[in-house]
Design a protein that fits this description.
homotetramer; about 475 residues; alpha/beta; Aminopeptidase; Alpha-Beta Plaits; 2 domains; 7-stranded mixed β-sheet; 13 helices; 13 strands; about 20% strand; para-aminobenzoyl-glutamate hydrolase activity (chains A, B, C, D); Amidohydrolase (chains A, B, C, D); Bact_exopeptidase_dim_dom (chains A, B, C, D)
Chain lengths: ~475, ~475, ~475, ~475
């Protein structure tokens, strides 16, 4: 059935035909790395491309200037592809070299591969639309332009405003070192600022008149460290002192701030734990005669696995296989790996749940096995909130040398490489194929939804970010 | 004017005549050491003697079974002599030997010389009454039987019930190693129990279900240690953990208790500091999800110096001089000193504000100089509350070898010695003489009262122990 | 094959014939509850019975006065039954009543059912020997009299001295509320005293001269609470302050002690974690100018599951089934359950990994399913060390009403009940049958040993308690 | 003796003649506020003026680019005038207005009046030289250009290199709100950086692999807060967290830094206390598995009072009296005072030890009394080190409205005012007169030196900053 528009080999051709354009788009975004919620140029580049492809674009989703949705097709189910495109601070790096070489001191860089992530998801969306159109099948394809994934929980703010409510399924991926279903059990989280206000005084002359906000931060932290014994072992609480109240020891610190990240397997548990952390702040304020306040910065729900869709995606990945790397790809990957320690590589391999023997591979030539068991990870992602609303499936696409850690110059250096482009295209095929399975098979979507409903126990989605917390770009700072 | 009944040499004779009887009473009390508020036999012995001397006795003062007042004389001013008679735990010791030799393992002992203190104050009271009677002068003499000085604040409970309100002056003394006016600026204090209740749980199996009262005690203590930076430097806060919640690490501690002693130069400052310490308890309870309560155990006001009376007492001490020690006294004192290090002796000498050269003396043959400047000491005494109500003066009487530390077996061992008896009699003379100065010279008492009023700035006495706190022997324990 | 001496129904008869005698022995030990390492009378009673049964007794095993081994039979494999018989403080309770009613205020009680444990293991040993003898089969049966399980790690001290080295298998059980294989993954542990010595000083007068040992304990604890963030999540560290340095806040505490229990999944991890806890002690001593020392009190290795023997035991349990309770048993169980909350019962049921629906059962009439997966528990037991040396299998025997918590008066009250006696006899049958499987089937023992070797990765047993640490009854205390 | 060149009224004329030039120099420096050790333009302006006056200038004293000495005269004693000229960050302010109005956002400003301090000391030096020259008396006058007083201890670095060793006396002043001898007992100090290095790790994914340098800082601080109980009450320890290890809670902080200021009445005590603080750092590093290092940033010795010179200076101040303020001066002072609360004013007045009634004064029209008793202050100054080497005397000169706090915009706003210029000239007269007393009266200098020798107990000056610590501008930063 060579002409079945949805046959994998046909789809492969559709994706490959457009892959160079999206590789170019990815490279463009790589070259103008923008931090969370400031991805204005990256968004414009994507929207231009999507409009050229005939997608209908809605800007300012959830009121966020860099959040948008692009849709194509008519009728039928609605399947969304989630794209990200924000960069990281301090990771400026020249492409294509295997040594640390910033383009701009202190500049930004795409250390998490979101240039590929967004462009790849777009390529999947466009290709799925192309296939649907050729097949004359109903169905709508959406691309979600999701800003601020890095410490911003952009999708959670979008979810709170209902942006994903009418989807039948969501599909996304992440660049990495392996080809695999990304089936993960992770942690919900809350990120919260705690601020204390005390009273300044000369620290030698009249310390008894001072009320130290830094003391309050320290005592809050001591209290939380005691709390660790009495919280569920899978939970995590960590913090950074974001304002220590000044660098002069001579003055009792009148204000100070600490940023907490509170995580637990389920969002309700994270919220309960946050209340206990707040009690530590309150207790510290009372102890020190200071006042305190808190500000929720962001939050994520835990990922809900969808084994139904994951099984479908895994089947497509097995059928499509790994990208076809060439000698040059392997040579550059080898050079990158030479910059990493064996421990780093082994640790990265383990974090994917991959066979330790794969640490020897330069680039991943296969597809990792999948038996329906999710990998347990202590991190968090705002894809979690999408997965609470709509059946969601994710892929890992091998874009980097095996062992490349996230958020490193090595990841940035490979961000425009030929092997990254190949990994992106392959992931786009797998995603598009899985979406097409859904368009073609209403039963699949129904089963995926039933699984979601069963996992949620019938409860409706409740966004972990309270309604009064504005998305970061909309916040007024005092 | 040899026959002037109030001439010092005549008074000297009066005191010496009765001194053997009171030395015997002191020895009797030494031999039946009773702890705070349990001084029943010591009280009976004193009352029997006072009734034999014709004093009118009121028992159960302030409702406390071992508090009493004995009065003699009619009309005129009322001057009170304050006596103490409680012993200390763990200080059982044979008399008259210069090595540690308990009479009873773990038994009590008069390590603070209160056997001498009470008997000496009685001897002063009786002798002053005798002199007044001979002179046919009006005036009432009182002996206050004050229990529970050691960690009990007996006088403060008595003061709260008005026991000292109608006095014109109060006189007392303390055995020590020197002859001197005891003019001291010390600290007011509050002693308070803090109790926490949490929830037990298996510390390994379900620590997340436990709420640790021991954590609360520790966090309260951490909070208070941070508070130290921000309190007046003369203040003191210290604590003991009186219930750590059990010795098994396997159980989350469901209850715990810590006993705080909070001191500051003035009682109002101590009270304000106590509020901040309470905030640390409250904050710790909130941090740990436990509940807390507190119980005031006792409190003392700071001593108010009365330079008027101190100057009078110093004059009498100079006129009367030191006791006349003999060779045997000096030999025993020398043996006691041989059991002490040079550092101990020097430290003790310094604590009296005495010339360091006096560390060489075996027994103090002179009277320490006094220029009206009080010695600053960081401790507390319940004489403080009397001094807030009525002009109060204190003497040190040399009863021990120079360098003898308080609360040691060495102090107990000297408690029935000839030199202690001599020191007690000499102190009784000085106290009686000072009281007689008052009876004879209304101007002196008026000036003393004016000084007190000036120091208090016109404020009435407010007892630091709240009305609802029962004296220890009257307390119900849950 | 009715006369097969090892047929289960024949074995059943052997056990039932002697069960009354061992129920009586259990009751005798229940009536003279002795604490860890002081089980002298309980040991004598057991030895008398074993000698009457013709066992050869070795006393003073590992030099511990209440540790002994009794052996019978000749040649063949050696299979050991592990018995315990120590009681708990503060759990004195009348038998057969469903309300808290101590026999002796503050007295001991068999709150963990070790009276049943020892007698039941003896009954199994004797019955297995009887069956072997009837069958004329070679094989040696041992009963291990293991003292001090409660906080004493008696078996670990015995293991260190080689007491289990020549065994082919070890079998034991524990009274509980269910009939089941006890297949558990637990934690290795170390219990360690930390002691600090500082310098006393008057806390108000000269605190700058004091060095507080209590400060050191508190700072060590703060350090350990910070350490929690950075240790594996399955590890556990908990502590009790066993000497707070005195109850007087007026003295800088010159000595203090804290008892730590450090646990981790594997003994090597526990040891590594203990080193970090010791660093906290060292750091605290340096911070406070105090000196520190530590004393290992006891330690246990983690349990090594032996699925081979567990499968055999489970088969026997399924074949033999639950004890046959009667109406009176069920009535008493019902009364006991009426003294417990639904939450307590549910929590106990969950701790056995049993179906929550079983919370409704008064007594357990079935056998819990077993699929080879161990239950994960955060506790520890000294059976762990035996399981590291020799293939070891454990059963739960239903002796208590469903929901009865361990270490409660309810457990003591049921310790002499008819249903406890029945549960003990049934467990004895299951244990004896499993041992007989081993005697009959050398392959089974070989597979069990191979499994052990595989789990140990070829490493020889290394006792977690260093050679210089004497067993508690042999220790000199300073 | 109208023509006595050293008569006060003649000296008054000499100073007044040159006062306008030095007021202009002060204004020039006010207008180019430079931070510690970066006072290059201010130094050039001063040197130009001093060279114009015929002084011999030595630059780069102690190797510090902005430290210099200017000398004039020949033979006789050598008396030095100490000048300062560094500004403060963040205190930019328009002159002559009574409201906060920065000239440059975040810019520097002369909030401590060092523009006046340096110019005034120069004016005194030049005038003393003029008087000596007129009188034909031998004697050398020096002006010390001392950089980096604000948190830099410039003089201590100069002292370490011997810059003050051959002086016979040192004289200086400070602008303030009162005319007075500045006789102070303050605290020696050490300012020390503590740095910790740990190991980064993902705070949720692998916290057990991380070693937190921030934990180490916090635990060090907890340890120091416990230490407070056990240090002399006059000592002070305070700190600022100068590197919290980053603002991301998601990463275990691999490095962190805290800056400590350790003070005590005597430099030896400060050094001993610093050792105990270092122990807290060491203990925290051990507890957390991090490494630590420290770097002494600066140190000051305590001021040694020189009552001999103070008495001489006080006599001159009484003879010369306060500056003659006019209506405009008082009006502006009144406007400044209107911007301050009564509490602020009262607190400032108290900090000078002045009569509280003077809080009502707009400008100080008298000279504060002096009875030889120093004011106790808990701060520190690098004049302390000069005072340890050579008899040193300081004056307060009334340049600001009564109640003006140091380091405020109000101080900057008055820095070029007419009343500040008058206060500066008056202080210059007092300083010059006192120096001339010394030149004229060798006995005075001898007595001053004898007093210093007696206070030092015969010990030679030992600089508190170790030889290996480079002055800040000479330091290499890693």
């Amino acid at each position: 059935m060579k002409n079945d528009p949805i046959a994998l080999d046909h789809l492969d051709g559709l994706v490959e035909a457009k892959a160079p354009a999206y590789a170019a788009l990815s490279d463009l975004i790589w070259g103008m790395p923008e931090l969370r919620f400031a991805e204005h140029r990256s968004v414009e580049a994507q929207i231009a491309q999507l409009e050229a492809e005939g997608f209908r674009v809605t800007r300012n989703v959830a009121g966020i200037p860099t959040a948008f949705v692009a849709e194509a097709g008519e009728g039928g189910p609605v399947i969304g592809f989630l794209g990200e495109f924000d960069a990281l601070a301090g990771l400026s790096q020249e492409a294509g070299v295997a040594e640390k070489r910033p383009l701009e001191a202190g500049g930004n860089g795409h250390g998490c591969g979101h240039n590929l992530l967004g462009a790849g998801a777009m390529l999947a969306a466009v290709s799925a639309r192309d296939a649907l159109r050729e097949a004359g099948m109903p169905g709508r394809v959406r691309y979600y332009g999701c800003p601020g994934e890095e410490g911003g929980s952009g999708k959670t703010f979008m979810a709170r405003e209902g942006a994903f409510d009418d989807l039948d399924a969501a599909v996304t991926w992440h660049p990495g070192a392996f080809n695999a279903v990304m089936s993960v059990r992770n942690l919900a989280n809350y990120q919260v600022y705690f601020r204390f206000k005390g009273k300044a005084a000369h620290a030698a002359g009249s310390p008894h008149l001072g009320r130290s906000a830094l003391d309050a931060v320290e005592l809050m932290n001591v209290g939380v460290n005691y709390l660790r014994e009495h919280m569920p072992q899978e939970a995590r609480v960590h913090y950074a002192i974001t304002n220590s109240g000044g660098v002069s020891p001579n003055v009792v610190q009148a204000e100070a701030e600490v940023l907490y990240l509170v995580r637990a397997p389920r969002v309700a548990e994270a919220r309960a734990l946050l209340e206990r952390v707040k009690d530590c702040a309150k207790g510290a304020a009372i102890m020190t005669g200071t006042s305190w306040s808190f500000e929720i910065d962001k939050a994520c729900s835990e990922l809900l696995q969808n084994r139904t869709l994951e099984t479908a995606l895994h089947g497509n990945f097995q059928a499509l296989g790994a990208p076809a790397y060439d000698e040059a790809d392997r040579r550059f990957a080898g050079e990158i790996r030479a910059s990493l320690s064996a421990e780093d590589i082994a640790s990265e391999v383990a974090s994917f749940g991959a066979d330790p023997a794969l640490a020897e591979a330069g680039l991943h030539d296969g597809v990792l096995p999948f038996d329906g068991t999710p990998l347990v990870q202590a991190g968090s992602t705002d894809v979690g909130d999408v997965s609470q609303i709509v059946p969601t499936v994710q892929a890992w696409g091998a874009c980097w040398a095996v062992g490349t850690p996230f958020h490193t110059w090595q990841a940035v250096a490979q961000g425009r490489s030929a092997h990254a482009h190949k990994g992106m295209a392959q992931a786009a095929k797998v995603m598009a194929a899985t979406a097409l399975d859904g368009f073609r098979d209403p039963e699949l979507l129904a089963r995926a939804k039933a699984e979601l409903a069963q996992r949620r126990g019938g409860a409706a989605y409740a966004c972990p970010i309270p309604p009064e917390v504005a998305a970061p770009p909309l916040r007024k700072r005092g």
